[in-house]
Amino acid sequence: MPIPKELALTAEQLDELMLSAWNMRIATIGPGSRVNLTPLWFGWAGGKVYAFCRGQKVTNLRRNPVATVLVDRNERFPELQGAMFQGRATVLETADDEAADPDLETVRVQMGAKYAGGHGEPREARRNEATARGRHWRWVRFEPTHMVTWDNKKIRPR
Hints:
The chain is built from four helices and seven strands; from the N terminus they run αββββαββααβ. The protein is an alpha+beta fold.
């Protein structure tokens, strides 16, 4: 049963969720048909989701770029808000690929502020300097082709 349209997040509410939520979850297809589901820090710009990640996620997305991203918040049903995106990811393989992306710089600054102090370092915001290295440390750009959002606070009591 689809989520009623009146429960959907507005564009402004979606931006607020995506710019303030701490973690996303990304589901990729691993070897065979195994699903790999992983929480990641993320950025949001130009209607796309960005994450700097490594390992199995990057390997999976190189093989099959189809993925699902979930961002949600709150725990109690009447307070749940979220967005689920289905789409395709692109692994930015080189520093040149990173430089060519029109929204990555915005994300670098955004994530530097959002996660300041998240690893125990000083709390002042710093641009995220992460860049392609080794075999598997890469920026990933996820472009949604389908989206479902919800805000259970909009449910009217019967």
